[in-house]
Fold this protein.
Amino acid sequence: MVPSKPTSTTTSEPTALSPGGSTRTRADRARTERMAVTAIGGGCYDVVTEYDTVYTVDLPEGRCTCPDHQHRRARCKHLRRVAIGVTDGRVPAPGQREDACADCERPVYVDEDEPTPVYCEPCTLDTGRFVRDRERGDLLVVARTTRDRANAVAVPGWDTTVADYPTNRTYPETDVVVEVLYPISRALAPDDLTPSDLTRYAFPRSRLEPLVE
């Protein structure tokens, strides 16, 4: 998948989203009280309050372990704070996790079952992008970035996968597969093209070095 782009990383220390005022509704407290929200998977989040108390919110089910929700069945400030964090992109949505881009280490949100490595949107190789093969130094052109992983794509003519191809074994076996072309000389007339000139080659993403545009 194309990873979503968070606006910030998960908060590790309790912080307030806005200054406190005179009103004390649950909605106000959700924004003004210092809390830290951490996604723990399965649509659940740990919320650390300013008093270091930890409550667990199940956002899809609308539940919280705090007394306000347990005894009053209220939509407590912790549920509201998690919902705000998801809406603002501060924490992953249910079904997602936070990871780091394999290229730039920028935080990205991806599906919980997405294999690593993952890449942020700016580091995803678009069609037409020039890259260099880290092994041979060849200049290549990206034909497309697939959703497939190197250990699941067979190499035509070889009884092996992209991951197990001899020169790819030092790269992650679950790396994204990128199809590339060798650049065609501008001096080559269309009638002179052969099928081999248009052959696509599958590479693990981390073997390709993006060139500065």
About this structure: The chain has two domains: 1-123, 125-210. Helices lie at 26-32, 67-72, 77-88.
